[in-house]
Structure formats: structure tokens, C-alpha cells
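User: Can you predict the 3D structure of S-adenosyl methyltransferase? Sequence below.
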Amino acid sequence: MVTSPGGPAARTTTGEVHRHGLLVGTAQAGVRMIGGSADDRYPSGVDLDRPSAARVYDALLGGSANFAVDRALARQMLTAEPNAARWAQANRAFLRRAVDFLLDEGVRQFVDLGSGLPTVGNVHEIVHAADPDGRVVYVDVDPVAVAHGQSLLAGDGRAVVVQADIRDVDAILADPATQDLIDFDQPVGVLAVAVLHFVTDDPTPILAGFRSAAAPGSHLVVSHLTTPDEMSAAVVGVVAQYNTRTGTPLTFRSRAQVTDLFAGWRVLEPGVVPADTWWPEPGDLEEPGARPRVPIWAGVARLPYVA
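Assistant: Sure. Here are the predicted C-alpha cells for S-adenosyl methyltransferase:
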């Protein structure tokens, strides 16, 4: 069953566009320094000479929390498929619109799974613009993303970063930071945006764990890469290049499989659709056939109240 929620409110972001469509960050060194050098800021043992999934995504979004090796891979991806940055931006724009919608629905606390590097259009910035008392827990297993997020959020008692594997739901729920900020007796927004395709096993138990903990009126937001048979050959090649260089395998799922991830939740209108078509803002959509479709399925669902 698909329920209509009405459209979310609009917000906008800007950036300088590279010739391939890559938004270029402003930090000369390519990584935003919050005190100290890159070597000082990141945990020992982190390979900064290998592209990171989170940092490549940040580069495609025009963020500054990335290194030359990440930007090099982003440029290679854009050479093979010039729309890659547009698709990353479409996914990020979907996240913004979905969070706006949840805020309109009265949700004031969020758990952002696999949040990656705090980058262009942070969830806590969107939330706090609407309600300064809103609360956000970012969850990521990547030590670089966690270190950067903790530096960014130092002293902010309304948003924190928890280092955890998103598959370990019990650990996330039991973490003191989660316990301090999130009241699961009240509606919560669970954000699984562009993260479940990094889970090679069935991700349903992850979402079921949060569904069991969440109060009625909570919402689930998901975006996920589609299957290769729904992609162009160029996109398949870009994905293969990404897998090889980052060492982070991607698992593709069809629209039906992504829809199945919402089991136990009530999917809201317009259903599971390409990310750029989920309640787009004026001017978001291009003429049909102008560019290849965004190969990312997206949807929002609500945990219904029990009569």
C-alpha cells in the first residue's frame, strides 16, 4: 500500500561546477582541516593513499573532505560517465527533501546510518534550521568519517557521531550517545540513504531491528543503486572501476528488492522511484530523455499506528 504524504518543503544548495559536472570544494588541499594536519586528524593505520567510498562521494558532491587520490578517481568516473556527479547530487537532494518532509511530519530526531563524511547539506544542519533542538545521531564504521564528524560536531550536544557497523543494530541502540539523544518512545527518522548497497547480505534484519525499536509515526528513508541490467554499459564500467579502486564492493538490488526492504512499514507516495523523481522541487526535473535516468531507487515509509 502506498500512501500520499504531500510534497516536502524546498531548500536549495549551490556550488561551482567543474567541466565534467564535478562540484569543486574550496579547500586548496582538498580536505577541510579542523586543526592540525591530515596525518594528525585521522586514526593511525588508515590508508590515505587509497580512495575511500565516503571521500569519493564527498568529492562528487563538491565537499572539501577528500584527498587527491579520491578526486582522481572521481574524475576518472566522470570521464567514463559524465552524469556520475549529477547522480550523487540527486541522491543528496533526495536526502534533503526527505528530511524536510519528515520535519514537516513532526519528526525531530534522526538516526543516519552509514552517514559517511559530513559534507554538503548535513542532516543536522537541515534539522537545526527547522528546530534548533532537533537531534541527530550519525552512524558510520569508517574511522576517517567518524574522526572528521567528531571534529565537526565537537561541542554540539544535539548531534553526535557513533562508530559502529550498521549491521550491529543492538550496539547502535545501546551506545550511550544514542541513548542520550534518541527517545525511541517518540517518532524517529531512520535514514538509510546510499548505504544498503554496501551490505552484501540481506539488509532486511537491519531495518527490522530499527522498526522493532521505533515508535509508531517513525519514518524510514532509503535510497539504493539499481541493478546492472537497468544501467548503461558506461555506468556498469564506472561501478566496476569504483569497486576495484576503493575495495568496497557494491551489491545491486532491483526496484522490487528495494521495495521489499520496507517490509512492516507503509510506503508513502510516490512509492519507490528514481531518486530525482521523489517529490522533486520546481526546476529539478529535466525534459524526458534529456539525460539518462538516475540509477538510484528511493522511497520513504511510515511506521503505522496500531489501532
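The CA atoms of residues 101 and 275 lie 15 Å apart. Residues 9-38 have pLDDT under 50 and may be disordered.
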